[in-house]
Every structure is written in structure tokens, then in C-alpha cells.
What does this fold into?
Amino acid sequence: MKRYAKRILIWSLVSVLIYGAIVAGLIVFGTAKPPDVATAITKPFADIDTQALPELLRYKARDGVLLSYREYPASSNKVAVLLHGSAGSGIDMHPLALALQAKGITVLVPDIRGHGANRPHGDISYVGQLDDDLVDLVNLKKPEFPNSSWTILGFSSGAAFVLRFAAETPAGTLADRYVLVSPYLRYDATSVRQAEPGSKPTQSWAAVSLGRIVGLSMLGQWGVHHWDGLPVLAFPVPANIDDATKVYSWRLTKNFGADDDYLGDMRRAGRPMTVLVGGSDELLDAEKLKTEFQSQRPDVPVSIVPGMGHSDMVTRAVAIRAIVAAFN
It folds into this structure.
């Protein structure tokens, strides 16, 4: 009996060692090489005229960290919070912020934690911290704008994050309305553009360290999250742009986006919502995106702006006019 128990113990230890070796190998060696710069996506942001950019302000999040944002003051009783996309910063939303301000809407544009003027880049402390940061900003600023209506707008991955935020209880009730621009819902969403058979691959927005993600996920099943700060995504952004975030940690990747059940997010969102996407989006199939939303929320209007690419939607005048019109 003792011999049998000893064998079980030995095999258990061997199994643990093998499991640990597999996980370690995936984490250490399961990385992807940095992607080539995606000029079609990044150049519209690099060309933004920043002469009228407001000064950088700071607000204190619940963990005591001072996070950056900009404010575009106006005179009406409308307030909009604009959230940039993955790898970007609040500067990306500057053209849209100016257009909304010109229509009398006060605009707040934060740098998402781990982005822009918030250092270090590419990581957060825990999954859900970005949600807490947004709640803290809105709750801090709301007393300054009594009797105002609030809209939270997100672009690309920021739009996917906003969709999930809108579906949360009670966080989703902080805003009166949500606007999603070019929402990159998930890498496996049916709306993500796929290459036609025999054609060249479509533009990819991130190089994914799949092996590392698998290894970290295996550890997560055991309640081990010590290495969740390791990078798992690399973005095709120019190396010389200081405000761009080049990589994302595993925990930031999990937080800055929609739920795995993103269709459920659509159904659970309790506030009015509007979706806009470019007809020539390099990353998304606009018609399939419209079908995704209409399959879950026929009441949510999805507007396709002809000829507009992914980044065009928040940088070009034609697309910006369409977004501003959605605020009427």
C-alpha cells in the first residue's frame, strides 16, 4: 500500500514538473516578432494638426495615480467623453473633439491608463482597472456640469471597451448614451475583415504571442497571475512616436475590449447606442458589422460612411461630420 502511494506521489510530482515545463516553454518562447508598420492605419493620426491641442490635465484615480486627460470646454448642457483606440492616445481624438466643441459640446479626452502621457506604457495593475478609471473620471467631473446629458464615445478597441462598459451594472448607467466608432469587437468577430481565398492577407493590427497567451491562461486556471504583466500583443506603430503604445500586457489585453460574449454585451447595454463605421475599413467588414448588431439589437442604428477607412473615421472631415450629426 505504501509502495502504491509512493508511486502516485512520484507520478504526481512528475506531472506537475512536465506541466510546469510546458507552461514555462509557452511563456518564454511563444512570442511573436514585431509587425511591420501599418501605414494606412497610423498615418492619419501622424498627420493630425496639434496646434490647438489643449493643455494636459490630471485627475486622481482611486489608486492615487494621477491620470492624464484634456478638456475642450463649451457652453451647452452636453458632455462627451472620447476614448481612443488600442496603441493610441487622446491626441488621436483631437479633430473629433474640436468638431464637437464647435457644436457646443464639452469634450473630455482621457489617455487610457498605459497609454499616451500615462507611464509606463502597455500595462495595468488588474483586469477591470480601466473600468474603474473611467468611472472615477466621470464621477469627478459630473458635479461641474449639473443637469447635463453625457455621451461616452469609443473608437476601435476603445469602442469595444465602451460596449462592454455600457453593458455593466451599475457602471453603464453613468452615461445617457453611447457611440461606437469603428468597433473592433474581437479578433474572431465575424465583422473582422478576412482575406478572400487566393488574395493577399488583409491588414493585421497586432502580432499575437499566442503561445504566451496559452501559457498565461493555463496559469490563470490555477489562480496564478504573477506574470500577467508580460507583453502578448505587439502593434504596427512607428517606433519614433513617443505617445504610441508598442505592446500590451496580458491583463491590459483582457481589459481593453469587449467580453468574449460580445453579442451578450450588445443585448445587455441598457442605454441608447449608435454605431458608425467606414465603408472602406481596412480591418472591419462594415456590412457584417451592421448584421452583427442588427441580429442582437435592431434598435441600434449602424451608419456606414462610404469611402472611409478605419482611422479616417476620427480624422477626416466627412466622417467627423457624420459622427457630430449623431449627437443631434
Summary: The chain has a mean pLDDT of 90. The first strand starts at residue 57 and ends at 60.
